Structure formats: structure tokens, C-alpha cells
């Protein structure tokens, strides 16, 4: 089964509100669906309603919430987050969630409601900082494209396990003094990928130097553009520890002039348990 978790991230209490105001009914059209509400005071976050979906395929593109926001004495909901998990453990904090970005949430109540809801439209992908990273030159791995999971990147877990370098990201960014920009990508796992919008100044052949780190032998990754593998599998070696960067060089890739989306794909975990820590990609034209 899958659980759809509707989270009221912040509730403003009404003047006489002293207890939790949970969703009375919530279901997906299937009578077997049940709900669970966490109990808390109205000014505490989060408050949840869980929809337990029966086995099978469910297509959900909207969630409608009736009459929850129009009564000042009951408080007003300020933010809604929709998440999905396949973990049915009873402990809410132990579940592994994936945020949902393509579901619209509508609140229906009194005409004069003053309610703001979280924008659930996915952020359009684009280069970090609004400008493509330039080749030849250095592509910082922590400067992957801006945008939602599934469009700008794919990470296997919903939480950034590292430094708070970028807001609203699932990518695991590590802070390290030996990195070229003080940060890099860590905790990398097979199946993950990152997009980088790059501007290639000239068509030609390029070499790439990639500072990496791993405790024991790392895994495999490759680079591609428009689905075409540019490098084949590149191995992250045992560098002597996670705090020691060593440079891996890959020679002779062909790039065409212009703006492209370069995709960094994690292919296989190594003995280290991960693919490896990646600092940056340094491109130099050779011919």
C-alpha cells in the first residue's frame, strides 16, 4: 500500500481555539481507504491526514479540502504539503517520504477566506544562478540545475544529508575545505543523477579532470548529453579516505559548441557503499 500524507505545515489558531481541528473525512473514492490524524494544538505543526490507498495504480491530480479554512474560531490553514510513502511503519518520523510536486490542492470554504497554500507547481528547470556553466572551465557539482526532483535531479532519499548550501533540495551536498568551492556532492547512490546546463565555447575534443574521494573502492558514473553517453563508466578509486580528494582524468570526449544539458549519472555503488564524493568537473580543450 501507499500512504498519501497531507500535512498542514502551519496553522494559525483562532481567538478561542484550544484544541486540534483535524480533517473529518478524507478518501480517494475507495471505501477501503482510511484516514489517520495526528493530534496537536492548532498552533503546532505539522498536523496530518494520511490516506491509505489500496493496492493497485492510483492517478491523483488534485486534492479538494472542504470547509476547513473559513472559521476564525477554528484557526486557518496556511500551508499544505502532499507527500507519498510506501513505508507503513506506525512511527510517522521513521517513514521515508517523496514529496509530490504535481498535485494541485484546493481549499473550498467561505468566500472571504484568507488562505495561502503552498505552490505545488514544479519549479521549471534552468541553470544554477540563471547562467550556464562554461566549458572549457570548471563545472561545480553542487551547482546542478535549479528545478524540481525528476527534472533537475534525482536523489534516492528526500532529505539533504549534508550542508545547508542550497534551499529546498534533496541532493546531498557536503561542505569540505579541500573542495574547489568549499562544497561538493556526497552520499551518492546508483540511480541518482544531476543535470547541469553548460555553454560549450567551441566544438572539439576535451579532457575532464574530476576530483573525487572514497573510503575503499568507489562506484561507477558516466556523463551524457541528450541521452548519449559521452564517457562510458568512470570508476571512483580508493583515495585513502572520504577526506582525501584525488583527481580522475578522462580523456578524449567530443563536445559541440552551444548550450547543452550535461547529465551526471550514478551507475553503481562500490565497496565504499556509495559511488563517491565528487568535487567538480574541469574541462580543457585538447584539439
Biggest beta-sheet profile? 7 strands, mixed
> Any idea what the radius of gyration is?
23 Å
Q: What's the helical proportion of residues?
A: under 10%
Number of helices: 0
Give the distance, in angstroms, between the N- and C-terminal Cα atoms. Answer: 55 Å
Q: What's the CATH superfamily of the largest domain, by name? A: Galactose-binding domain-like
* Domain tally: 2
CATH topology of the largest domain: Jelly Rolls
Structural account:
- The chain has 287 residues and is mainly beta.
- The protein has two domains: 2-108, no CATH class; 128-285, Jelly Rolls, CATH 2.60.120.
- Helices cover 0% and strands 42% of the residues.
- It has no helices and 21 strands.
- Strands 8, 10, 13, 15, 16, 17 and 19 form a seven-stranded mixed sheet that branches.
What distinguishing features does this structure have?
287 residues, mainly beta, Jelly Rolls, 2 domains, seven-stranded mixed β-sheet, five-stranded antiparallel β-sheet, 21 strands, globular
Give a brief outline of the structure.
The protein has 287 residues and is mainly β. 0% of the residues lie in helices and 42% in strands.
Task: Detail the topology: elements first, then pairings.
Elements: E1 2-12, E2 35-37, E3 47-53, E4 62-66, E5 76-85, E6 98-99, E7 104-108, E8 133-135, E9 137-140, E10 153-154, E11 173-175, E12 183-185, E13 193-200, E14 204-214, E15 220-225, E16 228-229, E17 234-235, E18 241-255, E19 258-268, E20 277-278, E21 280-285
Parallel strand pairs: 4-7, 8-13
Antiparallel strand pairs: 1-3, 1-5, 2-3, 5-6, 9-21, 10-13, 11-12, 13-19, 14-18, 14-20, 14-21, 15-16, 15-17, 15-19
Amino acid at each position: 500500500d501507499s500512504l498519501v500524507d497531507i500535512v498542514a505545515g502551519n496553522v494559525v489558531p483562532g481567538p478561542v481555539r484550544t484544541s486540534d481541528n483535524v480533517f473529518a473525512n478524507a478518501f480517494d473514492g475507495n471505501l477501503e481507504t482510511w484516514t489517520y490524524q495526528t493530534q496537536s494544538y492548532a498552533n503546532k505543526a505539522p498536523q496530518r491526514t494520511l490516506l491509505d490507498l489500496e493496492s493497485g495504480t492510483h492517478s491523483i491530480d488534485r486534492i479538494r479540502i472542504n470547509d476547513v479554512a473559513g472559521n476564525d474560531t477554528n484557526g486557518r490553514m496556511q500551508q499544505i504539503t502532499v507527500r507519498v510513502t510506501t513505508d507503513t511503519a506506525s512511527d510517522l518520523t521513521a517513514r521515508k517520504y517523496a514529496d509530490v510536486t504535481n498535485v494541485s490542492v484546493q481549499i473550498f470554504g467561505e468566500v472571504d477566506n484568507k488562505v495561502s497554500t503552498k505552490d505545488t507547481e514544479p519549479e521549471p528547470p534552468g541553470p544554477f544562478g540563471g547562467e550556464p556553466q562554461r566549458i572549457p572551465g570548471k563545472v561545480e557539482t553542487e551547482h546542478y540545475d535549479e528545478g524540481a526532483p525528476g527534472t533537475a535531479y534525482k536523489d534516492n532519499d528526500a532529505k539533504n544529508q549534508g550542508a545547508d548550501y542550497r534551499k529546498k533540495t534533496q541532493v546531498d551536498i557536503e561542505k569540505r575545505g579541500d573542495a574547489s568551492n568549499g562544497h561538493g556532492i556526497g552520499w551518492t547512490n546508483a540511480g541518482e543523477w544531476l543535470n547541469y546546463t553548460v555553454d560549450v565555447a567551441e566544438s572539439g575534443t576535451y579532457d575532464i579532470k574530476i576530483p573525487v574521494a572514497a573510503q575503499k573502492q568507489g562506484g561507477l558514473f558516466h556523463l551524457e548529453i541528450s541521452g548519449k553517453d559521452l564517457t562510458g563508466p568512470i570508476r571512483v578509486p580508493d583515495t585513502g579516505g572520504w577526506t582525501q580528494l584525488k583527481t580522475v582524468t578522462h580523456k578524449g570526449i567530443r563536445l559541440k559548441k552551444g548550450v547543452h544539458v550535461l547529465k551526471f549519472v550514478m551507475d553503481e555503488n562500490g565497496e565504499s557503499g556509495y559511488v563517491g564524493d565528487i568535487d567538480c568537473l574541469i574541462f580543457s580543450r585538447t584539439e
